Amino acid sequence: MFLFFQAQIFMLAHATEMTAKASFSLDTAPLHQKLVITNLICPIEAREWAQWLEEIGFLPGEPVRVVARVMPGASPLVVSVGPSFFALRNNEARCVQVRPI
Hints:
It is built from three helices and six strands. It is an alpha+beta fold.
């Protein structure tokens, strides 16, 4: 019985750790959380956004954080990537997949 509970605790801890490392889009990120870019996923009708985002420094592995928002859920977001700051609309920020550092 004791081993059963230990196994359940381990599985719960492992699931929590995996969830904490899961990617989410930058438009949903909390303010000032240290994140790293994992991927760019843009809508098919705006494929050029991925190239544009890469050109200004939104590359996998780069540190990023949301510095300010106009209002919760509103555009634009002020985002820090590397040493630079950019204003992104929600649709653009939604293309940037991130995870906590």
